[in-house]
Amino acid sequence: MTTNKMLKFISLGQEMPEKRASELRREDFEEIYGRYAKDHAADQAGRCSQCGVPFCQVHCPLHNNIPDWLMLTAEGRLQEAYEISSATNTFPEICGRICPQDRLCEGNCVIEQSGHGSVTIGAVEKYITDTAWDNDWVEVIKPLAERDESVGIIGAGPAGLAAAAKLRAKGYQVHIYDRYDRAGGLLVYGIPNFKLDKEIVERRNQWLADSGVQFHLGVGIGEQLSFAELEAKHDAVLIATGVYKTRDLKAPGVGSKNVIQALDYLTASNRKGLGDKVEAFESGDLDAKDKNIVVIGGGDTAMDCVRTAIRQGAKSVKCLYRRDKENMPGSRRETANAEEEGVEFVWLSAPEAFVADKQDKVTGVKAISMRLGAPDATGRRSPRAIEGSEVTHDADLVVMALGFEPEDLPTLWGEKDLPVTNWGTIKVDHRTAMTARPGIFAAGDIVRGASLVVWAIRDGRDAADAMHDYIQAKAGDIAAQAAAE
User: Could you tell me the pLDDT band of residue 485, with boundaries at 50, 70 and 90?
Assistant: First the structure.
């Protein structure tokens, strides 16, 4: 029976869920993909070849058991598929929406390499968990026994939330502290609704709260609560702040008005969508409507910015990237969506200066054409400027999407001995996720550097296991010492 349900890639082509027409999705911030009908989900899952070495699973940071839940979906056993999917992934419906599957599981699918088009793993993953929510299969966490020990987690982003879920399942009293007014981190304030509807994140936050995780929002460490006070409250602490400091560009005129950072722009748009009053948006400073927009960068954040500008009614949207399309770091799928929606990509182009008027308001970006030279230490071909190729692009608003770096946490928190690397990330023993300070752990981007949500989930889950081991070992030492006395 199983054989008949699988290996359909020979006779059945790849088919994504229905995607809204570009002229329609330009008008709003709704998610652009629909949901599979039940039969379509089963058919697409049935295209899996069930290969002996599942490269999709190998290249998934969470090592999700993809072949098994694809087979269960093909057989119509969706509740079992959800149980397998959620066993390794705390937020499968989120990863199904925002993971760059074309660079991870789907990009390494065996039938993709054979020319048949990959299994639509992300869309099936999303379908499974959305169906689970619809049918009340997603149950709150119920520990077998409550523990007296408590853990404090700094940061309500994907790493912190994933760690919280695992620690709560082990019975710990879990407290999450975040300086923002909503839990979710970049899932809420950085990623636009057309990729991830905020109700999806809020549903998971409520699931954690209903499971007994306690949220302390609007609490900044070093502000409302000192790190020392937090450390004294808990048996172990996890630092999962992410990285929010934006990289800057050194060029003449970079300080001109209306040259802004990507996170400021996206946060304003997302807050507006959530119903908040955003003065910088209302004044027009962070609103792209009727403006010539230039976004600098080639990653997923840049794609979020250009597609947001389109939806805000920009007059024109250009994306400048110093390498070519084949060497851009962002998702090819997101780039294709942006092109469909009317974004103009200027490949092999790097900004040299920002032109401003007498009021110091930006009017253009002076850029120079590039060519790709020999590969650098990372294996990527290094861009080289072509002399005499300068051109100026009209710009009423310039968005810098050059990536993120860690904030100076030791200074912000008044903890000068908090160990950090030369890059400013928290320094940990990667076998245990613990810093040189006993009981202080760190996970996610604040350790790894700016990376993917799926890696943050993986790191948070691993850190939770390490924290459990530490607390149990410490309890054992205390018991042994008491017995000796």
Answer: low
Identify the pLDDT of residue 476: 76
pTM higher than 0.90, yes or no?
A: yes
Its domain, for residue 220, covers 150-244+405-484
Is 374 found in the same domain as 276?
yes
Facing residues of 473 across strands? none
pLDDT of 79 strictly over 90: yes
What CA–CA distance (Å, rounded) separates 310 from 308? 5
Total count of domains within the chain: 3
Span 181-198, pLDDT tens digits: 999 999 999 999 999 999
Please give the pLDDT value at position 376: 79
Take residue 227 and report the two structure tokens written for it.
């790190």
Per-residue pLDDT tens over the stretch 419-429: 999 999 999 99
- Residues 361 and 413 occupy one common structural domain: no
Q: How far apart are CA 42 and CA 388, in angstroms?
A: 56
Distances (CA, A) of 208 to 4, 175, 284: 40, 11, 37
Beta-strand relationship, 150-154 and 344-346: unpaired
Residue 3 has pLDDT above 60, yes or no: no
Q: Both 97 and 181 in a single domain?
A: no
pLDDT tens string 20-32:
999 999 999 999 9
Q: In what order do the strands lie in the sheet with 440-442?
A: 214-217, 173-178, 150-154, 236-239, 440-442
329 is a domain residue: yes
Asked if 393 and 280 sit in the same domain, the reply is yes
Q: Are residues 269 and 389 in the same domain?
A: yes
